[in-house]
Amino acid sequence: MSTAIVVGGGIGGLAAAVALAGKGWSVQVLERAPEIADVGSGISLWSNALRALDALGVGDTVRAQGLAEVSAGIRDDRGRWLSRTDVATLRARFGAPVVIHRARLLDILRAALPEGVVRTGISVRDVTTGGTVVHSSGTSSADLVVGADGIHSVARRAVCGEVAPRYAGYTAWRAIVDIDEPLTEFGETWGRGARFGMAPLADGRVYCFAVYDAPENATGSLADVRDRFGDWHHPISALLAAADPDTVLHNDIYDLPALPSFTAGRIALLGDAAHAMTPNLGQGGCQALEDAVVLARLADEPDGLARYDRERRPRTRMIGDRSARVGAIAQLSARPLVALRNTALRLTPTSAQLRSMAKVLDWSC
């Protein structure tokens, strides 16, 4: 029986473990955190990710978290629509996206694994191309090492040396909140050098995020965020007022430059370890799920890791570049450019929006 060690117990790591176990591999997941959890954050799962989850056998469970009757689009900070998404056509063409709490998705993936596969509280210190993993509990070896340990990946060093993440120029605050009124819209509001996004969850809560231009590692507080977005349209102030300072997440936004390879020897990188991208297309986790399914499909085949690299690297680079461009447009701050952007959004037909999404969403296993 082939053996695999997965470094990292996030979405990509757990998905890779599920996919490999489903192909008959003996799998061990090493996660440095004492428990697998991700409070305060949601994730958008588009049709490409849902097809990957179908391949893992959990697609229907995830879809049960979706909401059937919602609207979507982009507005300006006064609440005027810049772009409306034809949700019915989107659903018919690609399938409806699902917004789910990250912790719930992690629970679903973990439940699909045999007992004892996931080992928490294990810090990986080094990985070799020969398949050896040095960690806080000793040394382990496997036929395949999956580097799913995020943007600051230890496994990546063995594949392509030190690679410094790039700061995108903006920072993000994310929260899961309860509000009195039901929310049936998901989408974003674009201002000048700032954005706000919201999405209803199946349990009645709302996932929301605030993004704004800032120096790298700048200090800030939730009170500052409330002041910054205080005069934006309803229900933004209500959502920020409901956010709990103890559970809100604050992270500067980074991506990775293009790597020369996702594989070396017995190591394969996936998710943020391979192609960390800005969140502007909602595709970071989706691409990690795709990675996991493709890797499990190819890993047993001759030259399988090289084929994985050839299949995944161009696609993830295309999506990462597109996401960075969307972020640059969304974060425009000069008034003339913002006015031009908003006019262009108003004039762009829905059919053009759907065509632009096809190259990302029309993926199959």
Automatic annotation (TrEMBL):
<keyword id="KW-0560">Oxidoreductase</keyword>
<dbReference type="GO" id="GO:0071949">
    <property type="term" value="F:FAD binding"/>
</dbReference>
<feature type="domain" description="FAD-binding">
    <location>
        <begin position="3"/>
        <end position="320"/>
    </location>
</feature>
<dbReference type="GO" id="GO:0004497">
    <property type="term" value="F:monooxygenase activity"/>
</dbReference>
<dbReference type="InterPro" id="IPR002938">
    <property type="entry name" value="FAD-bd"/>
</dbReference>
<dbReference type="Pfam" id="PF01494">
    <property type="entry name" value="FAD_binding_3"/>
</dbReference>
<keyword id="KW-0503">Monooxygenase</keyword>
<dbReference type="InterPro" id="IPR050493">
    <property type="entry name" value="FAD-dep_Monooxygenase_BioMet"/>
</dbReference>
<dbReference type="InterPro" id="IPR036188">
    <property type="entry name" value="FAD/NAD-bd_sf"/>
</dbReference>
<protein>
    <submittedName>
        <fullName>2-polyprenyl-6-methoxyphenol hydroxylase-like FAD-dependent oxidoreductase</fullName>
    </submittedName>
</protein>
